[in-house]
Task: structure prediction
Amino acid sequence: MNAVKGRKMFFIVQDNNGEWYLMGDKWHGAKLAPDSDGAATGASCTERNQTTLRFQYNTPRAFVYEGDTENILTAAG
Result:
């Protein structure tokens, strides 16, 4: 969480209809929401450690992403 706190980030997210959107840009990055710290260590050894991160991106319009989402990342090799 500390790695993204206060930094401008961008994400490519998919909605329920399969449309891809760009969340964050060069001028207005997506930022970690103040209420996003949902870290939990679990009460017993069988429960999983988990963290929910929530980001906010304020923009007057949604940007549809039409680039390649299948091959956007490549493994270093």
